[in-house]
Amino acid sequence: MDRGKMTSAGRGAKSKAPQHPQDIFALGSKSTVVVNRDSEKRNIHKPSTSGVERKRETSGFGSQPPTKRSRIGSPAEAVGGTSLEVDPVDLVPSVLQALDTHNSDKLLGLLTGSIRLLKSQRSKPDPILCMSMLYLTKIRPNMFAHETVTQSLCTLLKREQGAAFKNKSNLLVFVLACNMLYAGHKDSNNWPDTFIKVYIEDALNERCWVECSWCKCLVENIITAFNTKQPPSYLIPSENTLGTMSPSGSGSPLMGSNDDETAVDTELEYTVFPRYSSSYETVEALVLEAIKEQIQRRAAPDAIHRGFLKLLAATCGFPEIRMISASRLEAWLHSGKLSRCAQELLAYVCCNADACGPTAARDHEVLAQLARMRLKTKPMQQAYQACLRVMAADSPALLRSVITHTIYNELSNVRSPNNMSVLAALLAAQPALAPVAMAETFHELVLRAEDYLRPLRALTRECVRAAPARADAQALLPLARALAAPPPHEPAAEVNYFMTYSKTTVTDSMLRQINKRLTELDNLIYLKVLRKTHFWVFHNR
């Protein structure tokens, strides 16, 4: 019996032990300690509420705003903690009152609160709220340059997480956010990196505001960070891009009018100049990180979408982007759904290549990748030749590099079928510089230890056969003269005799081929020039 009592008592003690603080069984000082702790908890909770009321009461004084401004420097804390709910009708009077009383806390709370309300109404925003925000942007644009307000506005441009928001018909929130951000930062030379992040995010996904013409005041200033040259318009294929909006003919999206009679032809006034001159490396790192992540996630060519190629085209100012694009362009050009965007990317790669600057080594690799492409369709070959003509017209150094890589590819085991058409196009585009560049490449090959005489003779015959008209045959005459001319530098003594014999042999073969071709064309004027050139070559042998 005692053992049972002891067991029950022990079990009772164990069951009552956790309930000891709730049941007031403790005696003496322990009960007072419990009461004091409860009072301390209540005392800790009370100053927080009274502190908020006290700060609201004293926020109008001059000593409080600097301390408060430094406290809300964190955008996440400010957006979530200081936002104030306000009726859209009372937004403008409340903001003006806060400005008059120099109440910066209330001002930030009203602005962030209205932005949060606008974000919750993304599908159908309140017209009064939109017009109130536009009015505040008009009278006080510097309010939207604050870091907290800028971060809040950038949340409107970000993609909604976990929500299937793919409706591009209502762009009102995006247009409002872009124009408010531009108004707040239009006089600044150093824009925050957050703009680059939201641009990349939208460019890789729905492209809701990146391709909207009413947002181009912000977009065109953001893309100055990429240092990308715009190719001529005739190199870019025409395509009706979904989601684009034209200022003329479709009406303003703010007014929601699509009638041709009521549409107002307005010109957007904005200035574009470099905004990220001091953060080139940071922007390049952000772009490369996003591009490489997409390539790893979408390794197959079929998994690549048009937005990715358009982002590559917009960021072709970076040499690493040009190298990534050139190594994959052949597969994208032959893809049915990506052919137009790939052709646009090809134009951007060719127009942004530089053979003389600090990125010359990587751009030579880009040109080598382009020379190895095997384009199957004639429209693609014509587009490629047009891009090369524009690139050669801008830089003679690029012309020499393109011709060199094309000739080397023609003499290789795996040659491209469009090499002769490329050389013919370059000879027609640059009749004075292209033959000299070809002759210099021939000289380099002749001076090598390998025997290139027979391949060069075959290449010369192919060049003559690829000349379908008299104008192209006329372009081969400067090539013959350039081959007969001495090289720009004096060769070594052991290769001097070999060079003289090889140069004369190649020149004689080429002159015979050109003479035969011009005889078929029955051009007596060119025959006289050829006879004089032939006599000069044999006289100086």
Automatic annotation (TrEMBL):
Residues 1-81 are annotated as: Disordered. GO terms for cellular component: integrator complex. It holds the Pfam family INTS1_RP2B-bd. InterPro entries: INTS1, INTS1_RPB2-bd. GO terms for biological process: U2 snRNA 3'-end processing. Coiled coil: none annotated. Residues 281-435 form the Integrator complex subunit 1 RPB2-binding domain. This is Integrator complex subunit 1 RPB2-binding domain-containing protein. It comes from Diatraea saccharalis (sugarcane borer).
